[in-house]
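Retro notes (design track)

What went well: tokenization of the new backbones is finally stable.
What didn't: we kept losing track of which sequence belonged to which structure.
Fix going forward: every design gets posted as structure first, then sequence, in one message. First example under the new rule, 411 residues:
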């Protein structure tokens, strides 16, 4: 396969399993407000959360790589190997592509158009080109000519940033006037070769800056002395950078050894970036990226990097709202001493949708273990010894872990 296609296919195509849908309480905020981050979650596919990682909720199982319309009303997602559009509150969805393989959707500022990449098998492997289509599935149009990946609209909708074999380029929204603004590079030294590939561009809200991923491969030849070289060492890095929208003033924001830091997304106020942090052990495995990597946030001028959640493919939006923190409710405890059988009920109280696993133990003995958000444990008090007994309930609800212990007396 073409080397350029591999990072996109590895990171973007793998999916997760649960099929869930939900109803969200989401409201598009004023432009510039830092709202929810939509992303691919290891718990349930497409999900969203508050910028601090709280208020998690699932949106659609099996989907990935969400792009939210600027008005916050719809989401374009990769579902299988095609692009679909759905209401941001869940419910019905419409497949809008019928390509060889369509991935990496990007909603246009008009809220009516989606750019994406169509991957096609060619004699040398797989080749991608940028297309656009209406959010209703009509008006398909090829935009790039020969190769194009990771499309991202400018805030005014007039241009699209994309990457290809020679670097990051800009083109008009209709595909015209394509030109490279940040070329890839190769620097050859006496005993080393440094190769830089630039990709995954993302505009700042004011359109003045572009965040992007730079992948650097440094090959150092082991010589004793030169030109008697007997071996080589290869170092691979992938980090988040920012630049002006014309390709000038390139600045590096992240640098962590043996960790890919990629796929940046500006916050609506332009002061921060969310990105995907993928350790080397995850890069070299066959697992889904979101199951092995994390979403981090860093200041747009560098510094302050911190983890917010497990997952990948962040899209930081101005959408506000969402569910509150889940809690675990327990009811059915007898008043006073228990003399007869009673049912102890446990349930997760939350407006969010998320996969749940509940474990209930009576006096440390496992009684219930099931993938449910509510359960009832029957306690046969008449067959138990007199004295105090306890029930411990543990629930995993998406990324949240809930626990409660209750006690009762048997007479």
């Amino acid at each position: 396969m073409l080397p350029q296609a591999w990072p996109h296919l590895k990171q973007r195509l793998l999916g997760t399993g649960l099929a869930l849908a939900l109803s969200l309480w989401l409201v598009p905020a004023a432009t510039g407000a830092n709202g929810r981050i939509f992303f691919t979650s290891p718990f349930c596919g497409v999900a969203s959360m508050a910028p601090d990682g709280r208020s998690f909720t699932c949106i659609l199982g099996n989907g990935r790589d969400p792009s939210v319309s600027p008005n916050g009303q719809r989401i374009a997602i990769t579902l299988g190997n095609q692009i679909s559009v759905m209401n941001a509150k869940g419910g019905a969805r419409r497949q809008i592509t019928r390509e060889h393989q369509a991935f990496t959707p990007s909603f246009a500022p008009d809220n009516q158009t989606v750019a994406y990449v169509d991957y096609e098998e060619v004699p040398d492997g797989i080749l991608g080109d940028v297309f656009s289509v209406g959010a209703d599935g009509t008006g398909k149009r090829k935009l790039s000519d020969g190769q194009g990946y990771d499309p991202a609209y400018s805030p005014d909708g007039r241009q699209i940033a994309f990457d290809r074999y020679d670097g990051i380029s800009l083109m008009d929204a209709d595909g015209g006037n394509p030109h490279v603004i940040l070329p890839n590079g190769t620097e050859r030294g006496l005993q080393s070769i440094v190769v830089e590939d630039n990709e995954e561009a993302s505009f700042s809200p004011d359109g003045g800056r572009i965040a992007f991923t730079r992948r650097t491969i440094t090959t150092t030849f082991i010589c004793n002395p030169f030109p008697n070289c007997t071996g080589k060492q290869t170092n691979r890095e992938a980090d988040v950078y920012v630049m002006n929208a014309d390709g000038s003033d390139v600045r590096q924001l992240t640098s962590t050894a043996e960790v890919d830091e990629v796929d940046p997304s500006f916050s609506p106020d332009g002061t921060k970036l969310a990105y995907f942090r993928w350790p080397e052990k995850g890069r070299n495995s066959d697992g889904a990226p979101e199951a092995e990597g994390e979403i981090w946030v860093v200041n747009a001028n560098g510094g302050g990097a911190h983890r917010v959640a497990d997952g990948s493919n962040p899209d930081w939006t101005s959408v506000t709202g969402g569910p509150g923190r889940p809690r675990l409710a327990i009811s059915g405890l007898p008043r006073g001493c228990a003399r007869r059988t009673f049912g102890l009920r446990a349930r997760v109280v939350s407006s969010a949708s998320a996969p749940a696993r509940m474990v209930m133990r009576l006096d440390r003995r496992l009684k219930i273990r099931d993938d449910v958000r509510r359960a009832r444990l029957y306690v046969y008090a008449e067959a138990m010894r007199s004295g105090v007994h306890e029930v411990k309930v543990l629930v995993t609800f998406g990324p949240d872990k809930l626990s409660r212990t209750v006690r009762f007396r048997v007479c």
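Added context from the reviewer: The radius of gyration is 25 Å.
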